[in-house]
Amino acid sequence: MINQNGSFGFYDKHIFCCTNERKLGHPRGCCAEKNAFKLRAYMKAKAKTFGIENIRINTSGCLDRCELGPTMVIYPDNVWYTYQTREDIDEILNVHIINGKVVERLVLKRNQNKLHKAND
Ligand code: FES
Questions:
Q1: 99 C-alpha to center of ligand 1: Å?
Q2: Which SS3 state, helix, strand or coil, does residue 18 take?
Q3: What is the distance in A from the centroid of ligand 1 to the CA of 117?
Q4: What is the pLDDT of residue 59?
Q5: What sign results for the dihedral spanned by CA atoms 21, 107, 86, 89?
Q6: Which residues lie closer than 8 Å to 8 by C-beta, 6 or more apart?
Q7: Which atom of ligand 1 is found nearest the CA of 36?
Q8: Domain residues of the chain, as ranges?
Q9: Is pLDDT of 1 > 70?
Q10: CATH code for the structural domain at 13-70+85-106
Q11: CA distance 35 to 104
Q12: Which atom of ligand 1 is nearest to the CA of 18?
């Protein structure tokens, strides 16, 4: 059955937040050392307070964008984000999940290999 967003998914949006953990000092780093567990938990709680329904916010293993983390991907949109703060999470929920627009400043582009700076 096709849902209201035109996809076949069980949820309207399925969000995967990498919480992969590596040993300290690993050359690629990891999302866990950048507060990914707490930010994912915050996202789940905040989605509830916003009254957002029919989405799923799962932890995931490594999404292979480690240097740019913490990272998440939202399906079925196939939009990838990097985020660092609760404010980033609030913006992703408000702009992307509630209003259906992409938060351009946080998007991880396909060929991107370093983080944007504030004035990029
Ligand atoms: S550790 Fe998160 S993308 Fe690899």
A1: 27
A2: strand
A3: 20
A4: 98
A5: negative
A6: 1, 2
A7: 2
A8: 13-70+85-106
A9: no
A10: 3.40.30.10
A11: 22
A12: 2
